[in-house]
Amino acid sequence: MPSIMKLLSVTAICLNALTSASPAPRNRDWNDDREGGKRDGGNYALPQTNSGTELPAPPAGLTLKFITLGRGVQNYTCASASATPVAIGAIAKLYDGKPLVQYSQSVFNAITSASSHLSLPPGADTLIPTLGNHYFDAAGVPTFDLGRGGLLKAAKSAAVDAPASADKGPDGTGAVPWLYLTAKPGAGSVNLAAVYRVVTSGGAAPSSCAGQPGVVSIDYATQYWFYGSA
Q: Residue 130 belongs to what H/E stretch?
């Protein structure tokens, strides 16, 4: 499998071109940004499926905090060869998408789609900052841990199918749906209130469990757009 290093090198070039000479602290949200002339996260347009069905717009009072490239696996279980795969969660690293969005949304979309096909070698974090991790906790709650940037314990609020043109991923199973998730009441979210999963590549379940192991991991990539209170 080819390396993602070349794509991350492009990201690094964008980062160097779009940031100041002094290093910026990681996990600083968009409303603290004073670089590149775009201070308000609202200047960045949330991607649309353009299929006639869209996710709901961010609620009034929320502002864009982070945009990340998520790369990992969607996991499913197969009880038997005749069973239907059952989703059991996902694991992904969340990379800083800011330099790519500032450079070009279309470039960011293309890199997102390509990333599900590429490996993540040791040292990738030296080319593009890792803002956090996505996983499902012991209670099965989708969790996004962005360190000092915040914590989101989420619940699905809305879903739409990925566009027909979406990349099917290296396993050829198709792109997982686009999602809108909001903070689960009482679950302990900090600084983050909602996240959108958009521009998905791969990750969909196999059509059946025939010939599959007990646990099936399907590579995927996506963009996660995080929102919180102003």
A: strand 130-136
How far is it, in rounded angstroms, from Cα 58 to Cα 79?
38
Q: Nearest-CA neighbor of 96 among 138, 67, 124?
A: 67
pLDDT per residue as tens digits for the range 95-148: 999 888 888 899 999 999 999 998 765 556 666 689 999 999 999 999 999 999
Taking each helix axis from N to C terminus, what angle separates 105-115 and 5-18, rounded to the nearest 10 degrees? Answer: 160
* Cβ atoms of residues 145 and 94 within 8 Å: no
CA end-to-end distance (rounded Å), the chain: 42
Q: Is the pLDDT of residue 80 over 90?
A: yes
Closest CA to 178 of 190, 164, 193: 164
Is the torsion defined by CA of 54, 56, 62, 66 positive or negative? negative
Name, in order, each residue with C-beta under 8 angstroms of 144's C-beta and a sequence gap of 6 or more. 94, 132, 133, 134, 151, 152, 154, 192, 195, 224, 226
User: How many other C-beta atoms are found inside a 10 Å radius of the C-beta of residue 61?
Assistant: 10
Residue 100 phi/psi, 5° resolution? -75, -40
- When the pLDDT of each residue in the chain is averaged and rounded to a whole number, the result is 85
